[in-house]
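Structure request: Cell wall polymerase, Hymenobacter nivis.
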Amino acid sequence: MLSSPARYSRSIDWITVLIYISLVGLGWMCIYAASYSADAPANPLNNLRFDQLMAFNWFKQLLWIGTAAVLIIVLLVVDYKAFDTLAYGLYGGMILLLIFTMLVARPIAGSRSWLELGPVRLQPAEFAKFTTALAASRFMAGINLRYQNWRDQLVLAGITLLPPLLIVASNESGQALVFAALLLAYFREGMSPLILLLLAAAGIILLLALLVPKLWLVGVFTLLLAAVLLLNRRVLRHHLVIAISVWALVIGMVVGVDFFYNKVLQPHQRQRIEVLLNPSADPLGKGWNVTQSKIALGSGGLLGKGFLQGTQTKFDFVPEQSTDFIFCTVGEEFGWAGSLTVIGLYLALLWRILYVAERQKSVFGRTYGYCVASILFFHIAINMGMTMGLAPVVGIPLPFFSYGGSSLWSFTILLFSLLAIDAYRKQDLVR
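Returned structure:
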């Protein structure tokens, strides 16, 4: 199932490729800066052995970038029909791999989500986003799919929810949240906006239940029910059972939030919510990461302190600065201008992916394109929100920027699978 590389070179979307190269290159520079030490040799490549170089994140990231380039070549020579044909098989294989990881992986920071292959560690949850996007796109491209059909909706929900449930069972909640982004792609393909509104309403209710006394909320929602029944006689006559059921569900969420918060969430997950709701409560303890992150971002000013000149970066004030908080390095060393440039590159990438998705002739290609855009958007928004204190610290990487082979490989596969499909957009897929 191979295709001609020459034909790809003529039809591949090179604008997207250039944006990808720019982001990966800037990301490597920031990883180098985050792990830079003033005492290090001026040119470590001439002074250190390979095993010594492997102690540096920037060097290991170079190796990951090199292997990602090999992955790109492989994706471009595989026949574009393979992505549609193998979608369910890849999804099933990933489900088995997630179960295997959950059962045999060694706990790392309380999570059983990493497979160790000698010196290499891989996180299957990263790649599960790719296989789920493929499987969901394949299903939605089915000729008989109807969003008004509850059976179809349940099957699609099962495809989407099974991987994150297994990931949560491995105690890795951050990666599981990303799958919610697929709802944006489903909405584009005809899913009722009512589902998005209901999920958003549920989120707001749960947030209010954490911030407002429960008795007040129960009283407010009871008054709302009474007002609806008094002002709309049609609801009173024909939809009384539905109205009361919705009220009971809402009250159950309000009352049950304490049980979920105290009995279901892990201590570190509760800490993340507490820091988000009140970041100044414990700035030297639970709020240390976010506090130092905001200091690093703000200290860069308009143009930044200069490459390798960031004090917050150099002296390791921000934990996990090569991974979760890599955007701090951009703000501190390149300032507002550098941060705006990186955000601009991400916006250009998302716009280009949507453009590529819309020009597909197949439902499969278009849906998969929107899945890619949705996953990347969620990662970008949440990761940058974490560094600014606008989102909980859930431990998801910044695409193409954060250190890590699993994240770089998974995002590269996501993006270049779409470009491989797009390169043959003039040849319709079966679906």
